[in-house]
Amino acid sequence: MSMRNIYRKIAKEHGVTVPEVKREMQATIDYVYKKIDKSESEKIMQKVIHRKGGIPTTEEFIKSLAHKIENKYRST
């Protein structure tokens, strides 16, 4: 499924626009990456998300998680 279709599906399910979905997802990602009092599991998870900059884009975040899930199921 393409990123475009993912955003559309989420927007439709929640009765909002695609730009709203992207904006809210990025705001949430920004919040958790800027958070000061992170648990150890949050720190570990943030380190394994592939990204070009300091905070991943929604696309980088989703693709990285999808890749990790896919690899986990391939190895079982």
What does this structure look like?
The chain is mainly alpha-helical. The protein has one domain (3-74). 72% of the residues lie in helices and 0% in strands. It contains four helices and no strands. The chain has helices spanning 3-14, 18-34, 40-48, 58-74. Helix 1 (3-14) packs across helix 2. The model has no long low-confidence stretch (mean pLDDT 92). It comes from Desulfosporosinus hippei DSM 8344. GO terms for molecular function: calcium ion binding; DNA binding; DNA-binding transcription factor activity; translation initiation factor activity. This is Sporulation initiation factor Spo0A C terminal. InterPro entries: Sig_transdc_resp-reg_C-effctor, Spo0A_C, WH-like_DNA-bd_sf. Keywords: Initiation factor, Protein biosynthesis.
Task: Tell me the span between the first and last alpha carbons.
Answer: 23 Å
Q: Show unreliable segments.
A: none
Mean pLDDT, all residues:
92
The SSE order reads HHHH
Q: Please outline the major beta sheet.
A: none
Shape: globular
Radius of gyration: 14 Å
Which structural class best describes the helix and strand composition?
mainly alpha
Number of helices: 4
Summed up, the domain count is: 1
Helix residue percentage = over 70%
Q: Strand content of the residues, in percent?
A: under 5%
Number of strands: 0
Protein name: Sporulation initiation factor Spo0A C terminal
Pfam family, one: Spo0A_C
Organism: Desulfosporosinus hippei DSM 8344
GO molecular function: calcium ion binding; DNA binding; DNA-binding transcription factor activity; translation initiation factor activity
